[in-house]
Design goal:
Layout: E1 4-10, H1 32-42, E2 49-55, E3 70-73, H2 85-98, E4 104-107, H3 109-117, E5 121-124, E6 130-135, E7 137-138, H4 140-143, E8 156-161, E9 163-167, E10 173-177, E11 185-189, E12 192-195, H5 203-211, H6 229-237
Parallel strand pairs: 1-2, 1-3, 3-4, 4-12
Antiparallel strand pairs: 5-9, 6-8, 7-10, 10-11, 11-12
């Protein structure tokens, strides 16, 4: 049987205040495609999927939506409210992809981009980012949702964001909340879901990312080996893997 084609739409952009060399001693690097690939490898799904990446923030052309079976939309340093040309182009492509009915999982900045693309609103969270390995409170809809299968009612995930969704798109179901951000996970219908946290990231990667700009926050992170299960749940819940 042919493997399903799963695409990471990378919208990471860049933060000129951060030196990429900070990742030199980590296997992860500063490329979110490596983060996703490493977690998917650990989950043992590469026998069922063909994983690829398009770096949308670098202007790489996104494929014909009909030639992709599922997508991840990754995190982003730039705010979706910057309305950069590549952000607008990516959202336009997402509109065409949504029309296919194929599944999508947005992560952090991808959560925000998908929400805005469907009519939601994103704002700055405050003076300090919401950062740390933090519990989420699952709603009734979240407790019965495939995305959180196998978790208890307050699973923890890695957070690191300066913006957050403050108004969900019409018709979206709220799956999880935190003290800092009510809209932490959404199901938009049409096989689209998104989360504000980073199931693709390790504790080490999150710490490295904040150690330069917000060193006082790094103690909030700890190992969460079960966080990556969200990725497998997404693929299984949409029939991409068994």
């Amino acid at each position: 049987m042919a493997r399903k084609k799963v695409l990471l739409v990378s919208i990471a952009g860049s933060d000129d205040s951060l030196d990429p060399a900070r990742f030199d001693d980590l296997a992860e690097t500063n490329d979110d495609a490596v983060w996703f690939a490493n977690r998917l490898s650990e989950l043992g799904v590469f026998d069922a999927i063909e994983f690829g990446t398009v770096y949308a923030f670098e202007g790489e052309a996104l494929p014909d939506p009909e030639k992709v079976d599922a997508i991840f939309v990754g995190g982003s340093y730039p705010s979706i409210n910057d309305r950069l040309p590549w952000q607008l182009a990516t959202m336009a492509w997402l509109g065409g992809y949504r029309a296919t009915g194929k599944p999508a999982l947005g992560v952090c900045g991808g959560h925000q981009m998908m929400s805005v693309a469907l009519g939601g609103r994103v704002e700055r969270i405050g003076e300090e980012p919401n950062a740390g390995s933090l519990p989420v409170a699952l709603t009734e809809a979240g407790r019965g949702h495939y995305l959180f299968e196998g978790y208890d009612r307050a699973p923890a995930f890695h957070f690191g964001h300066f913006d957050h969704v403050v108004a969900s798109p019409e018709g979206a179901a709220l799956l999880a909340s935190t003290e800092a951000s009510e809209v932490t996970a959404l199901d938009y219908g049409g096989n689209w879901v998104s989360v504000q946290f980073h199931p693709e990231a390790t504790e080490e990667a999150m710490v490295i990312d904040f150690a330069i700009t917000h060193p006082h926050l790094v103690e909030r992170y700890h190992s969460l080996p079960e966080a990556k299960r969200v990725l497998a749940n997404f693929l299984k819940g949409n029939g991409i893997v068994d």
